[in-house]
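Researcher: Quick test of sequence recovery. Tokens follow.
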């Protein structure tokens, strides 16, 4: 009797995308997933009750569109619960994937890793977007800043999933837990795009202020020493890439000014969070 060759099993990959009024970017994001060369994907969109037609736009690409709040961690966890894949990748609605990214992720994780970093660069219009692009390029290859996005689902569940207590830093938190549990974190080479759109300084600072007001749980977990504080503020990535910054002085000046302003609003936001917490204890 002739032995039949065994068919290669292709694992399913679940792509989870949390959305919130993402109509500007969601179609480009989902189109980039549909163009993936990897043959076995499911797309799961978890919308936070958008009012701009985001769920309807997403339904053109997948029948797995759900409603869930109130923040990204809860949305991503819900999406993973609804997923059927061996592997899970979470991206944002303003990300655009190169057609070979998922294929490269599966090929790389099968080399003995349990989770992967997908490096990201920004695109956008206007001066402040160009400053943000310069900043993001400094972070490439920096394990202190880049976080995992592709993970074996069983490992995701073993380390406790994304912490829904964290509104800020939840991706760094799960990356730390994956490493602390002895799992190997790798990275792919192909870059993912983050569409900043026409970024303005004031909108960027509003976003930073919001996340800084929610940063207390992350800081209490992971910022334990003066050295941690210094490294969190004065990123080694900036000093390591000084040649790249010097080569673009116009946007470097704006980038440094933007970081200075972010640091200022971050301090105010963090101070407000501490004040509210103190007030809660005082009122008990």
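Model:
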């Amino acid at each position: 009797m002739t032995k039949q060759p065994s068919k290669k099993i292709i694992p399913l990959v679940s792509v989870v995308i949390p959305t919130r009024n993402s109509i500007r970017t969601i179609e480009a994001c989902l189109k980039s997933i549909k163009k993936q060369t990897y043959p076995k994907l499911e797309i799961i969109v978890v919308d936070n009750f958008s009012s701009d037609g985001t769920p309807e736009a997403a339904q053109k690409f997948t029948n797995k569109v759900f409603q869930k709040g109130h923040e990204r961690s809860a949305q991503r966890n819900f999406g993973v619960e609804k997923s059927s894949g061996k592997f899970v990748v979470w991206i944002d609605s303003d990300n655009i994937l190169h057609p070979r990214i998922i294929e490269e992720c599966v090929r790389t994780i099968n080399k003995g890793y349990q989770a992967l970093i997908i490096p990201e660069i920004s695109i956008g219009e206007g001066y402040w977007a160009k400053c943000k692009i310069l900043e993001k390029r400094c972070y490439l290859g920096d394990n202190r800043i880049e976080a995992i996005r592709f993970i074996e689902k069983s490992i995701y569940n073993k380390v406790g999933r994304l912490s829904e207590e964290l509104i800020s830093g939840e991706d760094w938190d799960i990356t730390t837990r994956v490493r602390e549990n002895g799992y190997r974190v790798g990275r792919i080479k192909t870059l993912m795009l983050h569409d900043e759109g026409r970024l303005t300084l004031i909108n960027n600072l509003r976003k930073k202020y919001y996340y800084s007001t929610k940063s207390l749980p992350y800081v209490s977990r992971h910022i334990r020493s003066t050295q941690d504080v210094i490294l969190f503020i004065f990123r080694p990535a900036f000093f390591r890439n000084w040649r790249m910054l010097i080569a673009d002085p116009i946007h470097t000046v704006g980038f440094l000014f933007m970081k200075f302003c972010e640091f200022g609003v971050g301090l105010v936001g963090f101070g407000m969070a501490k004040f509210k917490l103190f007030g809660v204890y005082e009122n008990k």
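The beta strands are 13-19, 41-47, 65-67, 87-90, 95-96, 115-117, 120-125, 148-152, 185-187, 192-198.
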